[in-house]
Amino acid sequence: MEKLERSLFRLEQGFELQFRLGPTLQGKEVQVYTNYPAKDHKFDRLKFHSLDWVYPNGQEDDCDKYCRLDLIVAGSYQYYFSCGDKEKVSGGYIVVDPVLRVGANNDILPLDCISSQTYLAKCLGPLDKWLDRVRVAKETGYNMIHFTPLQKLGVSSCYSLADQLELNPNFSLEGKHYTWRDVGNLVETVRKDWNMLCITDVVYNQTAADSEWIDLHPECGYNLVNSPYLKPAWLLDRALWHLSCEVADGKYAEQGLPALIQHEQHINALQGILWQQVFSKLRLWEFLQVSVDEAVEQFRQLLQAGSLGVTSRSSTDCRQQLKMVQDPQHRRFGNTVDMESALDTFAPHSRSPSDIQECCNCFRRRLEELNSELYKEMNCHAEQATNCIVGNVVYERLAEQGPKLGPVTRKYPLCPRYFTFPFEEMTFEEEMHLMEQKDKACHFLAHDGSVTGNNPLRNLAESGSEVYLRRELVCESDTIKLRYGERPEDCPYLWAHMNKYTEITAKLFCGVRLVNCHSTPVHVAEAMLAAARAIRPDLYVIADLCTGSQLTDNVFVNRLGITSLVRDARSATGSQEEGGWLSWFGKEPVGAFFQPSLRPLIPAVTHTMFMDGTLNDHSPIQRSVYDFLPSSALVSMACCATGSTRGYDELLPNQISLVKEDHLYSCWNPEVQKCDQVNLKTGIMAGKMALNKLHQELAAEGFTQVYVEQLDEDVVTVTRHCPSSHQSVLAVLRRAVKNPEGHHHTDNVPPLFIPGQIEEVVLEARTIVRDINSDRRSDININSLPEYTAEIQEHIQLKDSKVVKKAAMVSKHSGVGQEILFKKFKPGCIIIFRVTLESRSREQLGALRRHLIQFSPQYQTGSLAEHSTPAVLTKPLMTIMSRLTLADMNMLLYRCDAEEREDGGGCYDIPSWLSLHYGGLQGLMSVLAEIRPKNELGHSLCDNLRGGDWMMDFISNRLLAKGGAVGEVGHWFQAMFSYLKHMPRYLVPCYFDAIIQGAYTTALEAVFKQMSSFIQNGSSLVKQLALGSVQMYGVGHCLTLPTISPHLKDVPHCLSEITCQDNQCCVSLAAGLPHFCVGVFRSWGRDTFIALRGLMLLTGRHLEARNIILAFAGTLRYGLIPNLLGPDSYLRYNCRDAVWWWMQCIQEFCTLVPDGVSILKCPVSRMFPTNVSDPQPAGAWDQPLYDVVQEVMQRHMQGIHFRENNAGPQLDHNMTDEGFNVEAGVDQSTGFVYGGSRFNCGTWMDKMGESERAQNKGIPATPRDGSAVELVGLCKSTVRWLVKLHNIGHFPHAAVTIRRGGQTYSVSYVEWDHKIQENFEKNFYISHDPHDPEEKHPQLVHKRGIYKDSFGASSPWCDYQLRPNFPIAMVVAPELFTVEKAWESLDVAERKLLGPLGMKTLDPDDMVYCGVYDNNLDNDKFNQAKGFNYHQGPEWLWPMGYFLRAKLYFAKKMGKETYDKTVNLVKNILSHHAVHLERSPWKGLPGLTNENGQHCPFSCKSQASSLAAILEVLYDV
User: Fold this and answer.
1) CA-CA distance, 831 to 827, in Å (whole number)?
2) How far is residue 207's CA from residue 963's CA, in Å, rounded to a whole number?
3) Which of 459, 731, 543, 446 is nearest to 76 (CA)?
4) From CA 119, how far away is CA 1272, in angstroms rounded?
């Protein structure tokens, strides 16, 4: 089952989320659970409730039912589902975005509109001055202020909190004490009066090392009492501290390690001293080892007391069996051995002292081996620790990029301390004694930190993690890592303390930033955010995650409900990488497809806050002051939240230190800029204000599509596009990663072609140097670079631009647009254009959107009325579609390449790709359905559409050529496509898809309106299968059905394109696509009538079904109908079963169709009135259908013997001469219909050997001569029906008359029916009794409790083969079967023959079984060469339908419980067919698959009988 905890499903409030069953779950008892709060309930993340199933069609159909959630509450929610007795099978998360509101009217602030500015709280000064300082954010266009923590800080970083509940006292004035309420008032003022939101940081993973509360509650950190496994790491930490002090005091100078470490020799000396003076003396391996003497003595006492285990094992087993027991206090030699495992592993031969001693000696040796292994394990840790210590020293004291701390001192020790030591200095030996004193040891608390490349979901300080011992931690020595445990009960004070901290924050701020999110235990952050959302449901949550994996990021996002992840543009290596990010952060590409309102939920990318600068930037000014503006422009053009940090826009020359910064931010003064004040002339602030305003406008106005292009090394264009108005805003920016003042840059910028018409230059800006006294510096405030400022122009015309040399309207293949030539477009410049479509394109597009409204209201926006609308577009498409017959729909929607070529055309071929599968709309829809959800605009089909109008012309011209109602649809397409031809080519694919999708869905709606209520009210699977009726039935160009009687008045006529005469044009069935659809191989008698009930009668196409029945009736000859329907010379009467399927369909017609029995009186124009007559024209020899039926029965009872016309290799080059002799009849003793010989194959299993190499040519693979079980069933069904018909006066014949030996005999249908009934199970059922007197060949029986495949075969063993044919007889003549026997045989078939889609055609236990069909393979294998195994194992689909129908019928006889289980089984099996239909580009079911459902390349991709049989199952259900 799929695990989706690493997949992100993000939704906005207001969406309806549906859970639907996948194929593996259909037919099973599934329940969906979620902790999303039920209506009028509060959210409890630990409380789940079940969702009710919705049945849209009112029927309990698993393929359409769904559970729903109306998402109106923000947060992260979990769901899972149960299946049967499995309580929790699979699950995942749903993240619902918050809705943020600003201003007095609580206006919505969309997430993509956010422009945030970060403030280092300690640089804001007293609270009464905050509004003056944060006004800078307001005046420069930001709408969100992000504060670092406002709590009382520790001695160092702004994220090291001394007290999470107390406001930083530095914000108060002498005589004026500010509280959290004052902060809340300020935040609310900013929200209401400035339309700005405020968020702040929360830190859950650590507290400041000087926090007073941690001294009172040391259990809140990791110490040596609650985490004794840290003892070795603590000892090492103290030893390193003492070593550092000694190095600082010069003790090791003579050994080559002075206090000032300057070169590699010093490093080598350090390594030696670490091993000799630290690790060797600490003997840390003893914390892992066992006291051998004590363990052996305990073991000896147990042996002497008589405790014995099993016999002694080998040394390898000893290693595996002996179990170590960890000392919970982690003392030296504190570990022990599990004596039960020891006694099981080591057992003396006897209780004699010598044997016990020998056993103890073995035990001792094994313990010594274990201790040796543990010694090596600790040595590995020591080696890693040494490497880390040395690496840290090299970085801090020698590396060019390092801080170069200078000599080792107590302030700057050799390596950072990992644990607190809140006591006076003492010797190392004295410290070791403290370790065992709990009142002291509880205050040795582990500092927090991080490990590069560590699994972020793993707690570094928990047992099993050795990072403190291995010195891998990048330590923050001013913090203490907090220890929550798994639940509040594990550390009550800490949970309560942090919960109160969270509540204070949530009451004041609309959002939080999770500091050190990846280092915070996920369950802790989960609980805290749940508490915050209880106070503020629409909490905005952002976080920086440094996991390096999107999937790992998703775990945090899912569990915590993170709204936006912070991404820093400054960490990108160049414009190309940032551009890639920008495409990622955009909602969709320019020209994206229009998505339907109900669509599959696909994994999303986390919403992003894209930052042009953060507090963690390292010396950003080194990049070049000229790059700040274009970098900000690049970020502002992203379709996501954006952010910056205070100081970036002012061009601060140095990074603001999170630890040492003691200056304050400057205040806002719009008039005069003083050294302690800023305004729009400061730095790039004027440019940033324009960019922020533009960013917010683009998001608010729906510019959701993004396209990024790298014109050259440093020139980037970013396009934001609105998919409804089709306006674009295009930014061109030139990066200046290297300072242009010191590097040569060419002025040559490539010309830029902009599709459409430029309305204005929204913004033109560059960074310039101005003449100002740059020596003015404030001693109190943070100082910027006053000599640099942004020169901007807003909303100007092209002619007023300083960087555009020339703008000319040009026409290119991609459309009409403007070509821009630049001048003086130097590094650091940006220009942003607002672009609209040129006037004609705008008009055409508006008119097109107006016509598309009939398909979806999403096209309302941007639609325009036109002056003159083509007449064909003045009425809804449904009005036009409703005039099409279902035969017309075959032309509109389907027709494969062979059918199209027979008509003089072919399917559309996409160069460099493939031909479409259909000439009709389905060919396009199958491709578009694949590329639409993924917006795969680079697909070859999209390239073809952008490249020219060929595909559009193909569609309309193909339909126009047909004329009539189909031609009118062609006119509609032609008119709609005319709009497309006058718009920019990048928009053609999405609007082409909108037109095709709208027309396709309208056509399907019109199709279903012409079908039966079963189809109209059916499930999606029923409808998909019913479309097979349209797919498979059409009017062929060259070959149609034989002409039926002219005396029938309601037969469709049309003008023949060949003869130009008015001819009948009845639809005929294509047996399969693409192999059996044209010429003589289109209409197969057998396939036509296997499929007719499902695809014609159940769909409501009664008149067309009647015409097909009557047309084949006219071809009756020898008592048979043709196997293949073609011109006279191609009519082959070489199958025994087609006529019985035809008879079954007449019966079904009479049963299912209102007044269906009237067909029996319809005239049939006999093509061959006698066996030897020449073909007769229609109407020359008519007789009622009931007489034709009687002739079939009469001739079979009399016996059929003839040789095929035109027999020989010219008719069939594989068949032997004997095979052309056709025989059929009725066994007078049993009533069974029989026929065939070992030289031919007259049933559906009709493979004739073709391989001369394997010597199977001319040999039928499955002759099935004698009485084939399904034919006996079909015959019984017919006889039973004729008895009933005669009794109610609809059939004039009560018996058949035969001549034998010169005498005439009469056999009544009642007698015939009784005879079959009496003999069937006697001759077909294989009982469990090995001495069954009815069994003639007991030696051939290899399975019992089944029904034979045939009776009386020339090769008797063939009778006993298990094949899927007996369920056919069960469906058509269930009265032949005893319920219990039938059920058992179906169970055997299920176990042996059932495949994913079809039924194995032969028992896998059979010696000739071969499940892979390859018609091209010619080898020496008799049973395989040239596809000889066509019906000897491959899994055919249409028998699956009869198997399931039989299961349903007899399950009902077995009782309700069995029936309910069977219905679930059927649903589960049919789900595989639903999936195949959905995924198949042919939108059909194959004729067969290879074993276990594997694809068979030689099968038809869509087979009429497969579709029909599965549809019939659904009808029965």
Assistant:
1) 12
2) 81
3) 543
4) 88
Q: Are strands 511-515 and 667-668 parallel, antiparallel or unpaired?
A: unpaired
Find the range with the poorest average confidence among 168-172, 609-613, 1231-1235.
609-613
Query: How distant, in Å, are the alpha carbons of 163, 308, 328, 369, 1048 from that of 336?
Result: 43, 19, 11, 14, 99
Dist. CA 260–CA 405, nearest whole Å: 9
Q: Identify the band that residue 311 occupies on the pLDDT scale cut at 50, 70 and 90.
A: very low
Cα 266 to Cα 239, 280, 377, 865, 885: the distances in Å are: 19, 20, 28, 84, 94
Tokens 């107390």: give the residue.
166
**Where do runs of H (alpha helix) occur along 462-593?**
492-508, 522-535, 550-560, 575-585
The one-letter amino acid at 265: Q
Model confidence at 574: pLDDT above 60: no
Side chain identity at residue 1203, one-letter code? R
- Is residue 57 very low, low, confident or very high in pLDDT (cuts 50, 70, 90)? confident
Counting every residue, how long is the chain?
A: 1517
- Least confident among 293-297, 499-503, 578-582, 663-667: 578-582
Integer angstrom CA distances of residue 524 from 93, 459, 506, 786, 1065: 18, 12, 16, 46, 74
The CA-atom distances, in angstroms, between 824 and each of 106, 804, 805, 1074 are 46, 8, 9, 63
Give the residue among 44, 416, 36 at the shortest CA–CA distance from 241: 416
pLDDT at 961 over 60: yes
Helix (H, G, I), strand (E, B) or coil at 941: helix
Whether omega before 1330 lies within 30 degrees of 0, making that bond cis, reads no
Q: Which two tokens stand for residue 80?
A: 């899972």
The answer to whether the CB of 740 falls within 8 A of the CB of 628 is no
Residue partners of 1210: CB distance under 8 A and separation at least 6: none
Indicate the SS3 state at residue 1149: helix
Q: In 827-910, which residue ranges form alpha helices assigned H by DSSP?
A: 839-852, 877-881, 886-893, 897-902
Indicate the DSSP class of residue 918.
B
User: Is the whole-model pTM more than 0.85?
Assistant: yes
Local structure of 342: helix, strand or coil: helix
- According to DSSP, the β-strands at 1325-1326 and 1346-1347 are antiparallel
The tokens for 1205 are: 């016309």
Reported as a single tens digit per residue, the pLDDT across 121-177 is: 999 999 999 999 999 999 999 999 999 999 999 987 889 999 999 999 999 998 899
Query: Is residue 619 scored above 60 in pLDDT?
Result: no
> pLDDT confidence of 881, banded at 50, 70, 90?
very high
| pLDDT score recorded for residue 156 | 77
Separation of alpha carbons 1108 and 1066, rounded Å: 8
- 1076 DSSP assignment: B
User: Per DSSP, which regions of 1264-1413 are E strands?
Assistant: 1267-1268, 1295-1300, 1303-1308, 1325-1326, 1346-1347, 1350-1351, 1399-1400
Q: Return d(Cα 1363, Cα 1433) in angstroms, integer.
A: 9
Do residues 312 and 391 lie in contact, with contact meaning Cβ atoms separated by under 8 Å? Answer: no
The tokens describing 1018, both together, are: 């059916």
CB neighbours (10 Å) of residue 437? Answer: 11
Element holding 146 (H helix, E strand): strand 144-147
* pLDDT surpasses 50 at 318: no
Residue 1291 pLDDT grade (very low, low, confident, very high; cuts 50, 70, 90): very high
DSSP conformation letters of 670-714: SS---TTEE-TTSBTHHHHHHHHHHHHHHHHTT--EEEEEE-SSS
At residue 791, the 3 state secondary structure works out as: strand
**Burial state string for 18-54 with b = 16 or more CB within 10 A and e = fewer than 16:** ebebebebbbbebebbbbbbeeeeebebeebeebebe
